Amino acid sequence: MDKRLKVLVLSGGCSAEHEVSLNSAKSVVEALDKEKYEVIAVIISPEGEWSLAHKSSSLAPVAGQVVTPSLNRMPRGLLLLANESKRGFEPFIQGIDLVFPVLHGPYGEDGTIQGFCEIADLPYVGAGVLASAVGMDKGYMKIILREAGLPVVDFLTFKLTEWRASSLQIAEEIEKSLGYPVFVKPAALGSSIGISKANARQELVDAVAEAGLYQEKILVEKAIDCRELECGVLGDEEPEASVLAEIIPGHEFYDYETKYSDELVNIHIPASLPATITGEVQRLSIKAFKAIGASGMARVDFFLENGTNKIYLNEINTIPGFTATSVYPKLWEASGIPYSRLLDRLIELAIERHKKKAHYRTQRT
Ligand SMILES: Nc1ncnc2c1ncn2[C@@H]1O[C@H](COP(=O)(O)OP(=O)(O)O)[C@@H](O)[C@H]1O
Ligand SMILES: [Mg+2]
Question: Measuring CA to CA, how many Å separate 225 from each of 252, 253, 309?
């Protein structure tokens, strides 16, 4: 009998970060130790259709292998059903032991897939429902981080409907309380999609229109003249921080193109910084991880202001980029944990967390 753990790697998804997720998942599928794990790779199409994926050189849906997820808590598990056989749906893959969501952005990194795993009572890698949701919405994330005493840049949020009704007042409020330049972002996305920098009123209007293509909720924050630092966190109740990375984008800021083209960005690992700054960033990273209640992994990103050396926490990502050359795995490699050991550790953490939860009563006795 196959004693390997049956791991379902979920990728793609209904988010603007679909492609990024496929790249991350391809590396994860390749690096998972096949002696320990039976890997089942599923791609969720941009429209939401689940398909089994080839696990070879490129992660792509297998023609005709559309599957439908079905959840059961009793007997436990997520079943993948083959579609539309003559007898209707029938079980196709059963006995999944663990889910590894390698999904970035909404419908994957935001607690939705995590809730799905909770319903199925399956262990899954990374943050739970609440921490995922908080980590995804930059507005709520910053409120919680600020409440925990962490240094965040001044910001405000509004809905597009409010903007349409009173753009003049909102623009004046932004100019009064933040001042140009500002960054304008869809509140809950990633990979810099929909983000732009505005230096004056017309650019602000254009930037809101751009961010508003993706989402209803917009976040505007003060632009900081800074160096950008990133730190990996790994663990659960006693998480550890990795060495730091410094990101030096070739463009004015770390936009989509610079994130996914090696020629446009320089990444220094470990970052060349005074020990006091490195230590402080690591301390703040762990504090942020705990503040949002994260589990397993997170990458915490910072601004180090030029001139003042003031540290600001930009964001916490609960499913960071995961290709073998992405920053999060590179940070751990430089901290002594190679890529496939990192995956083992994340799976162990997921199982431990699931077991811990099972200790508690779900019914009054
Ligand atoms: N307040 C800011 N000051 C300076 N640069 C910023 C600011 N906000 C965002 N940026 C730039 O935009 C990039 C993407 O913004 P971020 O909030 O990290 O969005 P994402 O979740 O898409 O990565 C940052 O890495 C940085 O280069
Ligand atoms: Mg970012």
Answer: 11, 10, 10
Q: How many domains are contained in the chain?
A: 3
Rounded to the nearest whole angstrom, what is the distance from the C-alpha of residue 32 to the centroid of ligand 2? Answer: 26
Question: What six digits make up the tokens of 310?
Answer: 């003031």
Is pTM beyond 0.90 here? yes
State which of 140, 193, 252, 253 you would mutate to test the pocket of ligand 1, scoring each by most atoms of that ligand within 8 A of its C-beta. 253
Tens of pLDDT, residues 315-338:
999 999 998 889 999 999 999 999
Q: How far apart are CA 272 and CA 136, in angstroms?
A: 29
Active site residue 146: no
CA–centroid distance, residue 184 to ligand 2 (Å): 13
- φ, ψ dihedrals at 27, nearest 5°: -65, -40
Q: 11 pairs with which residues across the strands?
A: 43
- Residues having CB within 6 Å of any atom of ligand 1: 153, 183, 185, 189-192, 195, 221-224, 226, 228, 253-254, 301, 303, 314-315
Structure tokens given for 163: 């903007």
Q: What is the 8-class DSSP label of residue 124?
A: B
Residue 360 lies in a domain: no
Task: Please tell me the distance between residue 344's alpha carbon and the centre of ligand 1 in angstroms.
Answer: 31
pLDDT digits (tens, 9 = 90+) for 84-139: 656 666 667 778 899 999 999 888 899 999 999 998 889 999 999 999 999 999 99
Active site residue 17: yes
- d(CA 140, CA 135) in angstroms, rounded, equals 8
**Is there a single domain that holds both residue 303 and residue 254?**
yes
Asked if residue 365 belongs to a domain, the reply is no
Domain CATH number, residue 45: 3.40.50.20
Residue 142 shares a structural domain with residue 96: no
